Structure of Cysteine desulfurase:
Amino acid sequence: MEPIYLDHAATTPVHPEVTKAMLPVLQEVFGNPSSVHHFGRKARQVIDEARRVIAGSIHANEKEIVFTSGGTEADNLAVVGTALANQKRGMHVITTQIEHHATLHASEYLEKLGFEITYLPVGPEGKVSVDELESALREDTILVSIMAVNNETGMIQPIKEIGGVLKDHPAYFHSDAVQAYGLLDINVDEWNVDMLTASSHKINGPKAGGFLYMREGTQVAALQYGGEQERKRRPGTENVSGIKGFQRAVELAVEKRAERRQEYGVFKQIFLQKLKQENVRFIINGIETETVPAIVNISFPGTNVEALLTNFDLSGVAASSGSACTAGSIEPSHVLSAMFGKGDDRTTNSIRFSFGLANTKENAEEAAERVASIVKRLAQ
């Protein structure tokens, strides 16, 4: 039985073009980018080119891109670094109950340091209210951190509208765009964000790579100490081959964005249509028309997550109950708990399916057939 991968929101297969771009760098470009000799300059050229391409993908200036080890480090730098650098102006930070744990746990750390955090709630649709954000803003608010697309439900958040609200407020605005990058057209000026996070392995690039966009003039304290790489904002010798791979993944994502959106959306619709044809009882969590094409979060009444995932895996279907960063956890999803309330059945019977490069129309339909068979058996 051919295994079918429906967990692209957790990580994506590396695109063959990305591997091809990385190989010559791994084989030939071994110099330290901080060295002034020929070997170092060659490595520096690779990073400089990647920085230009990546900055262009979000309509930013190349000086505003800081390479990191991934989305988690970028979120930590944005949330903790900004709070520490600006605490004399205020100690209030606003985020949401549905953020990735990279933001939530960073916020909890700030609470231990004496910062006051407002966690904005969401309703059953899983969307942040712009009015509630506006009501939560105070004179001493120094940072607002709200994700662009939720990693569990795929719900697109009103980032542009929130950016408009914050335009006349001194608080910095950060958005975790890890699940949005490569699928949504991002313009940092139109969104009015001061910081933005993205990750390489979510867009068919190599793991352990990401960036934090930091608008020029944004005050952020470094969280690590060492060399003067990344304009003193993130020390450590850069991952040259990984950055080259990230660049190629970005080029492909920009070039094929419209095509991917359509293709992944077709896979999702084929999958859902087949479940309906098989008379499976299910409810989509969130507003389907307001999600990214690649993600759908489905509640299967009368079942539970552990049994579902175990049986899916045995049948060769890879899916998840939410963020891969909480893999192995049997805790109910914090995102679905925020949407429906703790104790609601949907917090323990919902599965995230996410589509991408590893899918075809045929395997999307085949996966739905396998899922339907298992759900009907377990729900009896």
